[in-house]
């Protein structure tokens, strides 16, 4: 056997992750040493033995081989959480194309200076009656955070301090007077519950319905048989997926194992989190992006030490170092937020599957609108499909949905943004004092300014995007922050006829108030939620009936239950159909289905009005009919026809550079290399594996082309697409291009 070297990191809890050290793998240990293996190595001048982890195996010595020390031993029994995470990092590097360093930094939390943490718990001696009274009083006085705490204490004997601060949004200053009045007590001792026996919930028992029971049991049976697999829980909005997750989790926790629950940040509201706390008590911990690195590290440490058993959080919670992981749940698996924007550009669904298989854990993906990717895998039998086809709450029915053709409205002279049908229903709901949600299907809404003489839109000089007009009359670039006052003449042709164009949340708010002067209106968008907790404040104000109408972008349709909403108006359903990528039909269907799912969550039947210029588009039709099957069939046909994933695999290579000539050169080289790799692979007989030499289709190369937004922050961007049914071929082409070491920034996406 040839010489083998191992790059190791010596102390994973330290910044040394930045710097691997190289050791020789002695012959007797070859085979036993894997990526992730805990090993002992002589370290430093004194050659004291230290524990280290292997992050990479290579045949190449990085310096004079005679000076490379040998690994002393390998701990074969201890393929612990850290080992698994390191192997996961290795897999991510290979799969997504990044450096090992980037991958390690993603999976291992870097230690920061942390103050020692005290575990604090809030308790009360008050009776249920007294608590209820305080709750009512807090509501009257609009002390929302206080009300949330009292209502939490009604449900649970004790509330972890962290939960109160992070999820219920209390501050130390707000807790103080409550403590002084003797309503609550903040205990500062180390008071853990027995972590293996989750508390039984105090709230009202929910008994699973037959569908939920069957879904939970499918997992539980496999789990007990020692072979939990991957499941896709497809359940319509309001079908009670969360109860099913919790039932599965209870089984795993009873068995002494741990659970990771991924929830998109936007749906990680205190309402959601409280459901888990209520059921499992203080073995639950939550992380979110508002935590500092130190706080996050802290939570991971607690997990590693076995102080918590359930971690809830966005994408990165996947890397919680549980030693004995039994289950990973990914709620709303179709969410775009599960894909990392930074290298390694991993998808949490894929990385979770890898992690689950290393740990022997189950993986449950849940959605009302599964991604095409997940659903096609389920149909192929790679995932086990579990279905919930009915709403969980008795008397709760799916809303009545109507599609309104805006072209017809215009023809009959209605130029308002509200169709006649929507106006009529809004009046009706205002009269009945029921709530309304108006949803604009427009991400980060922007109203741009254009010239009526030459037709040019006012653009950012640094980025290829239109500037956004704000109410204060200034024009802003949402990509780089560039800002100017609104000019009085067109910068291109000098014409004075320039004006704002487009319909945004602010505009809709104004129009709504004009049409319904008596209505209390809340608006939720980037502007109104930017302050800390703004998002949650607005949602709870609306839930508590402080407004009649809530207007907003996609933020308002995720993961919140508003039982009093009986009308949802979708104002521009097709806007998202014009986005420049192949998945826009899928996103449109998902968002419309979610929006429609907001109506009629209570006992009153709901109505949904979808206004559109494209009433015949299948995404809109299928969403209106709440028919996932119909949508899947149409969308899959389209993907097959046009060769898009998941019909086949697609490698997207992005190149970016501040110097346009350099970028153009690099892009050409990339294109040439890809072509050569394709031809070469075919000729070298690799074709046997791929089949295209023997008449199968060769990989298809598209581009390089300019990115949809060619320039951002003075950086130019180009894209190259390569498609083929064989994933490994694309992986190989990616590696060829990585090897070029082009003087531009590259990003890879392989789906
Ligand atoms: P989903 O996540 O599928 O949209 P949820 O889990 O949020 O659905 O459940 C919707 C509502 O139905 C929640 O208020 C939940 O408490 C309630 N619910 C769930 N299961 C049951 C059940 N078996 N019986 C009564 N109510 C239920
Ligand atoms: Zn002009
Ligand atoms: Zn800009």
Account of the protein in words:
The chain is of the alpha/beta class and 751 residues long. Helices cover 34% and strands 21% of the residues. It has 23 helices and 30 strands. The strands form 7 sheets. It has a 7-stranded parallel sheet with strand order 11-12-10-13-14-9-15, with helices on both faces. α18 runs parallel beside α19 (618-624). The longest helix has 24 residues, at 660-683. The protein is globular and about 85 Å long. Residues 190-202 and 683-691 have low confidence and may be disordered. The structure holds adenosine-5'-diphosphate and zinc ion (ZN) (2 copies). One zinc ion binds at residues 460, 462-463, 477, 479-480, 482.
Mean pLDDT: 84
Count of DSSP H/I helices: 23
Output the structural class: alpha/beta
Overall radius of gyration: 28 Å
Write down the overall geometry.
globular
What ligands does this structure carry?
A: adenosine-5'-diphosphate, zinc ion
Q: Report the portion of residues in β strands.
A: 15-25%
Number of strands: 30
In terms of per-residue confidence, which ranges show pLDDT below 50 for 5 or more consecutive residues? Answer: 190-202, 683-691
Largest sheet: 7 strands, parallel
> N- to C-terminal separation?
36 Å
Q: What topology, given as strand order, has the largest sheet?
A: 11-12-10-13-14-9-15
Percent helix, as a range, is 25-40%
Cofactor: Zn(2+)
Keywords: ATP-binding, DNA replication, DNA-binding, Helicase, Hydrolase, Isomerase, Metal-binding, Nucleotide-binding, Primosome, Zinc
Subunit structure: Component of the replication restart primosome.
GO molecular function, one term: hydrolase activity
């Amino acid at each position: 056997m040839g010489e083998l070297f191992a790059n190791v990191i010596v102390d994973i809890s330290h910044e040394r992750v930045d710097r691997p050290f190289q050791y020789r793998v002695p012959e007797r240990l070859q085979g036993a040493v894997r990526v992730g293996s805990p090993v002992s190595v002589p370290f430093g001048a004194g050659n004291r033995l230290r524990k280290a982890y292997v992050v990479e195996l290579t045949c190449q010595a990085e310096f004079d081989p005679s000076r490379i020390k040998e690994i002393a031993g390998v701990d074969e029994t201890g393929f612990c959480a850290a080992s698994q995470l390191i192997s996961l990092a290795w897999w991510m590097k290979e799969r997504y194309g990044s450096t090992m360093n980037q991958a390690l930094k993603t999976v291992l939390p870097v230690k920061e200076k942390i103050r020692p943490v005290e575990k604090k718990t809030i308790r009360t001696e008050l009776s249920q009656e007294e608590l209820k009274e305080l709750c009512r009083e807090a509501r009257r006085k609009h002390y929302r955070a206080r009300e949330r705490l009292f209502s939490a204490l009604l449900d649970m004997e004790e509330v972890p301090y962290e939960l109160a601060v992070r999820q219920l949004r209390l501050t130390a200053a707000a807790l103080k007077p409550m403590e002084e009045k003797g309503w609550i007590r903040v205990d500062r001792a180390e008071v853990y519950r027995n972590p293996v026996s989750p508390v039984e919930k105090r709230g009202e028992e929910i008994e699973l319905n037959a569908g939920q029971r069957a879904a939970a049991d499918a997992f539980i049976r496999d789990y007990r048989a020692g072979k939990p697999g991957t499941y896709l829980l497809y359940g319509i909005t309001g079908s009670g997926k969360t109860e099913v997750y919790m039932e599965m989790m209870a089984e795993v926790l009873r068995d002494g194992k741990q659970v990771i629950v991924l929830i998109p940040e936007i749906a990680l509201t205190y309402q959601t989190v409280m459901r888990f706390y209520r059921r499992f008590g203080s073995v639950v911990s939550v992380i979110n992006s508002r935590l500092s690195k130190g706080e996050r590290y802290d939570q991971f440490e607690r997990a590693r030490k076995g102080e918590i058993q359930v971690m809830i959080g966005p994408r990165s919670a996947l890397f919680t170092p549980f030693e004995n992981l039994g289950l990973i749940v990914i709620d709303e698996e179709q969410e775009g937020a599960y894909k990392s924007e930074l290298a390694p550009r991993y998808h949490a669904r894929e990385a979770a599957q890898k992690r689950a298989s290393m740990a022997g854990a189950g993986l449950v993906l849940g959605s009302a609108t599964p991604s095409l990717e997940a659903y096609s895998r389920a149909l192929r039998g790679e995932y086990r499909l579990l279905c919930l086809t009915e709403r969980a709450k008795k008397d709760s029915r799916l809303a009545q949905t109507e599609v309104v053709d805006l072209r017809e409205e215009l023809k009959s002279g209605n130029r308002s943004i509200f169709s006649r049908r929507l106006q009529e229903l809004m009046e009706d709901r205002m009269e009945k004092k029921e709530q309304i949600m108006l949803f604009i299907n427009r991400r980060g809404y922007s109203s741009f300014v254009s010239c009526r003489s030459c037709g040019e839109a006012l653009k950012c000089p640094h980025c290829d995007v239109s500037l956004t007009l704000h109410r204060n009359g200034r024009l802003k670039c949402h990509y780089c922050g560039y800002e100017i006052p609104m000019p009085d003449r067109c910068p291109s042709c000098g014409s004075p006829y320039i004006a704002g164009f487009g319909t945004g949340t602010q505009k809709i708010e104004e129009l709504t108030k004009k049409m319904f002067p008596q209505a209390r209106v809340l608006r939720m968008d980037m502007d109104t939620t930017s302050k800390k907790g703004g998002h949650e404040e607005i949602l709870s104000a609306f839930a508590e009936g402080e407004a009649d109408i809530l207007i907003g972008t996609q933020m308002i349709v995720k993961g919140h239950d508003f039982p009093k909403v009986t009308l949802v108006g979708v104002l521009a359903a097709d806007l998202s159909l014009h986005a420049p990528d192949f998945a826009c039909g899928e996103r449109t269907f998902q968002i419309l289905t979610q929006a429609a799912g907001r109506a009629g969550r209570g006992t009153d039947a709901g109505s949904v009005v979808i206004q559109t210029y494209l009433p015949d588009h299948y995404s809109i039709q299928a969403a209106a009919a709440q028919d996932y099957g119909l949508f899947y069939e149409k969308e899959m046909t389209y993907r097959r026809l046009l060769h898009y994933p998941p019909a086949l695999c697609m490698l997207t290579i992005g190149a970016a550079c501040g110097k346009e000539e350099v970028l153009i050169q690099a892009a050409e080289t990339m294109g040439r290399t890809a072509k050569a790799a394709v031809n070469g692979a075919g000729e070298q007989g690799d074709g046997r594996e791929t089949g295209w030499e023997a008449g199968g289709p060769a990989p298809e190369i598209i581009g390089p082309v300019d990115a949809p937004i060619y320039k951002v922050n003075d950086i130019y961007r180009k894209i190259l697409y390569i498609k083929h049914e064989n994933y490994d071929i694309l992986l190989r082409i990616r590696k060829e291009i990585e090897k070029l070491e082009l003087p531009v920034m590259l990003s890879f996406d392989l789906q």
